[in-house]
Amino acid sequence: MSFDTVEHNRSRQQFDGVSSVWLFGYGSLIYKVDFPFLEQRPATIEGWARRFWQGSHDHRGTPEAPGRVVTLIEQPGALCKGVAYRVSPQVFQHLDVREKNGYLRFSTPMVFDDGNCAEGLVYIATEDNAAFLGPASSLDIARQIARSTGPSGPNSEYLLKLAEALRALGDHDPHVFELESHLL
Ligand code: SIN
Fold first, then answer.
1. 124 in ligand 1 pocket by Cβ < 6 Å?
2. Residue 60: which domain range?
3. What is the number of the ligand 1 atom nearest to the C-alpha of 123?
4. Cα(10)–Cα(13) distance, rounded to whole angstroms?
5. Which of 7, 64, 74, 99 is catalytic?
6. pTM summary value
7. pLDDT in tens, the chain (184 residues)
8. Ligand 1 centroid – CA 125 distance (Å)
């Protein structure tokens, strides 16, 4: 798969006749909300673990020195907490460009904090994408984050803002918080 997933995503879901779509955010989409939304609710998806295993060549690193950002890895029973946004389908024109470095839109069931459920879309960078970096020790990941920077700013800012946002959601993500403590 090429680095740029924009065209790929455009052909994945048809929004004809649909006035709004739920989007589940679990990484920068939690704290950097640069798109309009109709409604916003904390939510959880099951079977996925958040990991700093995706390379960032366009936002928090460069093609020569990629940073690390989160993607979701399939893990039975795991719970991933995030924020669901109800958006108009046009918003995906912007989001597909923002998430173009390897992320594809997948459909997922989501559970809101009040127990209600809905189907939503989530951007996941699967391990067959060209920017996927995969696992490394938490110290090595934290070191890579500490030295990386890109057009959207320092990679450390991505990690620190995500940790802060997860804390505000009442989530305890051991992977993210361990990296945060290494970085600090
Ligand atoms: C997300 O936040 O849901 C996707 C990954 C990212 O943009 O950081």
1. no
2. 6-183
3. 4
4. 7
5. 99
6. 0.96
7. 447 999 999 888 889 899 999 999 999 999 999 999 999 999 999 999 999 999 999 999 999 999 999 999 999 999 999 999 999 999 999 999 999 999 999 999 999 999 999 999 999 999 999 999 999 999 999 999 999 999 999 999 999 999 999 999 999 999 999 999 999 9
8. 9
